């Protein structure tokens, strides 16, 4: 399905032009988003995340880091809480614990779902989208290629043995 990629939408303009790969991917992603498929995936993962050891481990590490950092500060009514919060956030980000922890969470939560849950649903939605796209092309007389008419003067016999 390679067509000119001039940035025009495949839904407008010349009907016999097919969308480019980039446009096709964009159309499919927008369809998946509009059907709420990505939201469903997000809900499935979030419902499962707090039961996984990687999440519990990361949460414990961040809690300990924050507690240790706060232990070095003396509370006073004049303490700038926003500045302290931002400082802790920067220290957590610098430590790299989030990056490695999130990678482990993804491997425990998302990876097992990819082949058994997400891929079949995405493939089904893509096939349905492509079927509607090809159905629209078949329905459009401008987009459809002219069919060759069979020669009706000679009868067509398939898989038949004719006597000699």
Automatic annotation (TrEMBL):
<dbReference type="InterPro" id="IPR043244">
    <property type="entry name" value="BOD1L1"/>
</dbReference>
<feature type="domain" description="BOD1/SHG1">
    <location>
        <begin position="28"/>
        <end position="123"/>
    </location>
</feature>
<dbReference type="GO" id="GO:0005694">
    <property type="term" value="C:chromosome"/>
</dbReference>
<dbReference type="Pfam" id="PF05205">
    <property type="entry name" value="COMPASS-Shg1"/>
</dbReference>
<keyword id="KW-0158">Chromosome</keyword>
<comment type="similarity">
    <text>Belongs to the BOD1 family.</text>
</comment>
<dbReference type="InterPro" id="IPR055264">
    <property type="entry name" value="BOD1/SHG1_dom"/>
</dbReference>
<protein>
    <recommendedName>
        <fullName>BOD1/SHG1 domain-containing protein</fullName>
    </recommendedName>
</protein>
